[in-house]
Amino acid sequence: MMSIVLAAASGACLAASPAQMEPGFDISGAGARPCSAWTEARDKMGDRESSALLDEAMMVTWVQGFLNGMNVSRIAAGGQPARLPDGDSIRTYVDAFCRRQPGTRVMQAALQLYLSNAAR
């Protein structure tokens, strides 16, 4: 059942433009934050006085957990797992996505990253 929900969410997100990719379900944690929060945290990484390091670490960790969860769902549905990116690759992808689409959520960047890796 979970794999059907995730497949439907993935298909809906592929058919929509990034600005229209609001999930039809609740998300929580760092993935619910807007891409502008990701970009702000990444831009402030050199500022030792800010909480940017913690914010960035929480968002990267959330994305890693999301990607792993997508793989678990894929395996449970009888599919092959996608090759998952390392932390630096996650940062690079989400940086680019969020700079292009600051009004979307970190989850949407994570989903697109997963789908691009799963297609390989």
Automatic annotation (TrEMBL):
Protein name per its UniProtKB record: Rap1a immunity protein domain-containing protein
Organism: Variovorax dokdonensis
Signal peptide start and end residues: 1-21
Keywords: Signal
Top-level taxonomy: Bacteria, Pseudomonadati, Pseudomonadota, Betaproteobacteria, Burkholderiales
